[in-house]
Structure formats: C-alpha cells, structure tokens
Write a structure and sequence with these properties.
single chain, 268 residues, Elongation Factor Tu (Ef-tu), domain 3, Rossmann fold, seven-stranded mixed beta sheet, six-stranded antiparallel beta barrel, globular, binds flavin-adenine dinucleotide
Amino acid sequence: MDNLIYRTVKVAKIRREACSVYTVKFKDPLTAKATPGQFVMINVIGVDEFPMSLSYIGEISGVTFKVIGEGTQALSEVKVGEYIGIKGPLGHGFQIDPRDRLVLVVGGGIGLAPLIPLIEKLIENGVETKVVFGVRSSEDIFFRDRLSALVDDDLIIVTEDGSYGVKGTAPKIARKLVRENHFSRIYACGPEKMLYKVFRIAVRYGVKAQFSLERYMKCGVGLCGNCCLDPLGLLVCKDGPVFDVETLKKISDFGRFKRDPSGMKIKV
Ligand SMILES: Cc1cc2nc3c(=O)[nH]c(=O)nc-3n(C[C@H](O)[C@H](O)[C@H](O)COP(=O)(O)OP(=O)(O)OC[C@H]3O[C@@H](n4cnc5c(N)ncnc54)[C@H](O)[C@@H]3O)c2cc1C
C-alpha cells in the first residue's frame, strides 16, 4: 500500500515538448513498476494537487501534460532539483493480451501521453501496432520522434487544419483503418467526445476496446466519489481510468455527463 502514501521526488528533468506541453521526469521505485495507463496524483507543493498519467515508466518515470490552469502552470515552472509530491501509481491501466496480432491505438491531443508506454509494451510483446495521433494543428504535435522510433510506417498523424500529416479527425481515420484491417483490439485516450466516437466504431465493428477516461478527482483513491460514473457507480480513479467497451456500454454518463468540483452533473 506504499503507493497510497504521498512522497516527495526530486525533479530530474523538465522538457518543453510542444506549445503548452511539458514533461517532468523523476526517479521513483514505485512508478517504475506501473502499468501503462495508471496515473499519479501530483502535488505541486503549496499550489495544487491533480491527477496525471505516466508517460514514462522506468528507472526515470515522468508525466507529460498540457498547461491548463494554475496547477499545471506551476508544474511547468518547477526546476530540476526541486521536489514535487506524488502518490501512486493509482488505478487500473491498459491490459495487453499477447495473443493479439494487430491492434489500433488512437490518441487525441494530450491523450497520447499514457498511450506511449502502452505502445512500447505492445511492441515489446511483438504485437503489431498501428497508431493514429490526432491534434488540432501541427504545433500541438509532441513525441513525434518517440512515436516514429516505435511504429514508423504504422503512424498516422492527423491534424484538423491540415497543417501536418493527414487532414481530418482521429475517429474518421480510425474508422477507415478498422474497415480495412482485422484489429484484435483498439486502445484510446483523448477528449471524451473523440473517445465516444471511437467507442461507437468499436461497437459497430465488434472490436474489443479499452478507453482511458478523465474525471475531476480530488483524492485519486476512491474516497471523494467525485469521479463516479452513473448508473453503475464505478469510480474512474479506482475502477479505471481504463475501462473496456463492455463496461462502457452500461455507463450512461460516458460521452454525456461528468461532475464538476462540487459534484454537480454537467455536460461533457
Ligand atoms: C486519470 C487522469 C489522468 C490525467 N492525465 C493527464 C495527463 O497525462 N496529462 C494532462 O495534461 N492532463 C491529464 N489529466 C488532466 C489533468 O488532471 C488536468 O488538466 C489538471 O488537473 C488541470 O489542473 P490545473 O490546476 O492546471 O487546472 P485548473 O484550472 O484547476 O482546472 C482546469 C480544468 O482541469 C480539470 N481538472 C482540474 N483539476 C482536476 C482534477 N483534480 N482532476 C481532474 N481534472 C481536473 C477540470 O476539468 C478543470 O476544469 C488527467 C486527468 C485524470 C483524471
């Protein structure tokens, strides 16, 4: 249960990856053993505490994030050698079936972050992996070299404005690929509207799939209940953040509602 105890880790590296996207790396024996898709609660001391998926898992682990508000702004400004608090790894990550021959990974924007360690593990397991990475514009692309080194020809970068790669949206390209290939599984992370479209594709074509969801969470360990999903009452922090397609079929909140910090239901 050591993963539930807050500890401080020294920042080993910080890197700007793209417009408002940063990676912060640290050494931590517990996150070194995390499953891709698991997350940590990050405490920027004296500022805020929030969940972040692991984008690097190993002797040096890390999180990659988009600057949104006060917390992520402060995280982007930490210096090498300073300390941050972390708790984790938390939740259930992506499951890999080594019997899978060919899989599709769909990332939307910063949603690519937890998918990268997954892609590394899939490749390590000899699973052929096609990747669709969708962003608004070329300046939002990050991890291009890391992705190319892993999947090379099997990478399609999609921009909404056509400024790089294929013009369009990730779900549109995903649909085309699903029609043309026999995927054993789809993995996806990104904005919920995008995830919901990919979910519909998985259901329509009968492909197994796993999706990483985001909800506002205060504790990350199943106490506050703010990340609960109706009608099953599943908690994104504890039962997820990764859910399979069969579970999501039963969750009416998926693609429609989330909870604000006060617990009130609002539209996704
Ligand atoms: C399991 C999980 C994994 C995540 N992984 C990543 C990641 O790898 N990279 C990344 O850039 N972002 C990730 N996020 C989202 C990230 O937690 C928010 O962007 C961050 O908390 C924003 O904090 P802020 O103080 O900068 O912004 P604020 O100004 O406080 O909030 C801006 C918006 O961020 C969201 N947010 C704020 N606090 C939380 C919270 N405690 N829980 C969830 N959402 C919150 C809310 O929608 C809020 O409206 C993840 C969220 C979850 C639930």
